[in-house]
Amino acid sequence: MTSDPLAPAASPLDQWPPRWAPTAVIFDCDGLLVDTEGQWVALQEEYLARHDVTLDPAIRRQITGRAVEQVVRAIAAAVGKDPYLVGDELTSAHREHVGETLTPLPGALETVRAIAAVRPVAIASNSPREVLDTKLAGLGLTELIDASIGIEDVAEPKPAPDMYLAAARALGADPADCLGFEDSETGADAARAAGLQLIAVPSIPGQDPRAPRRLTSLADPVLAEWISAWDSRR
């Protein structure tokens, strides 16, 4: 009997809770740890509405989680304006409010703290460095994590694997031994391409990230039980 080439590869996360434990853990930020992705999407929708334009649902799904430049190009095409002008208008509005109201998603900070106590942790985000640092400081995560990778730190943003590969290197870990957490299709594609084991926790409607394990929330009690059983490698 031949195997199905389209069947997903076996993963230690197929069992829940797994018997496996990672060497290091890499988290996305927006839409996973904090509700900034939802705020960013809402800002885009408000901008489109001011121009009496709606974005095709397929395009919205495709650009969610992507780098700012890719989002801006899609919206500029929709409103018929110069991408540089749209970029200035959107990013200025976003920067004006980022850090003002940071709403952690359920279980996010507790999960990062629990893992950081026993394993090296990195954040890998398509955000610009300045914005990422602001969010991490506002969430009280700066001193907890071992590394953070922003968009300026890699050649290609997500969905390319560069960001996750860079985070694994920063933690001194083989990507195959790392656990990733993502919320978007873009981020999940990046983590899987880098060879990580992946847990998807989607928070934006319409996103269907592919991953060996999907949770509805980082407050999942089985997740917490699994992490509590890890030996300390600090």
Estimate what percentage of residues fall within beta strands: 5-15%
What class, by secondary structure content? alpha/beta
What's the number of extended β-strand segments?
6
Spans of at least 5 consecutive residues whose pLDDT stays below 50 are 1-7
CATH architecture label of the largest domain? 3-Layer(aba) Sandwich
- Mean pLDDT metric: 89
* Name of the top-level CATH class of the largest domain: Alpha Beta
Which value, in Å, is the CA radius of gyration? 18 Å
Distance between the termini: 45 Å
What is the succession of H and E elements?
A: EHHHHHEHEHEHEEH
Kindly report the name of the CATH homologous superfamily of the largest domain. Answer: HAD superfamily/HAD-like
Largest sheet: 6 strands, parallel
- In spatial order, strands of the major sheet run 3-2-1-4-5-6
Seen as an oligomer or otherwise, the chain set is single chain
**What general outline do the C-alpha atoms trace?**
globular
If helices are DSSP runs of H or I spanning 4 or more residues, what is the number of helices? 9
Characteristics:
single chain; 2 domains; 6 strands; 9% strand; disordered N terminus
